[in-house]
User: Fold this.
Amino acid sequence: MLSTSEHAHVTVGDLTFDVTISGPDDGAPIVLLHGFPESAASWAPVSALLNESGLRTYAPNQRGYSPGARPDGVESYRIDHLVADVVGLLDALDIDTAHLVGHDWGAAVAWIVAARHPDRITSLTTVSVPHPAAFGWALREDADQKERSSYIRLLRTEGKAERVLLRDDAQALRAMFGDVVAPELVDEHVALLGEPEALTAALNWYRAMTSDFAETPAVTVPTAYVWSTGDIAMGRAAAERCGDFVDAPYEFVVLDGATHWIPEECPEALAKAILDRARAAG
Assistant:
């Protein structure tokens, strides 16, 4: 097995995505979708472990995060576009089927990719964010989740969110990571989103949210959902209901005490969950 690593520019339609590709050339493909306010760099610790186990990883900077894939306007960030980007990347990379992993917003996209395109996904591992129907239920019915999600109102407010997050050398943006993410990774995330147009594109994911997220059908591919008890954004109610929306082998993995930033904080535990799911799926 020849192991390689490269930073590729992959064209999908009129967009060009920056993709970090690493691992054995003949390894089974696994696509890693980052969250907000992160970048593909969030997967570096996990990717190294997956590569050591023989998997070939593809970590894109997604729509709005890649400079060549940053269209104007909120409408350009509707979920249909985000899902199509993932399928388009698979096509452009000549990948028929792949294991799919997503964290935070990347998890939301991954759930819907797997629900709509099960023929392209061998296994699914989602991190922090549960199935959209479980999350939608919690937003309606669970007071704790309503409180945890109150920050979204700020992020959806055009102009104000950018000012708050970028003032004083992006102090508020950096503070979101607490002290659990390595400073060099925080620097890389902030460098990507430190320009107002880049941050606006990333925030447009929130601004393009609609209630039809909660209408996402059940997933029919083998799935693992990884949740941490110290996550201040995602509560237990939605996490425990997540399995109701998977019609396939399912595992609920709980990381006690970990925060929301699981890929950077707990790479070994997350890599194990991903590998267990991928190997069981074949």
Observations:
- The first helix runs from residue 44 to 52.
- The chain has one domain: 3-281.
- The first strand starts at residue 3 and ends at 12.
- The CA atoms of residues 165 and 172 lie 5 Å apart.
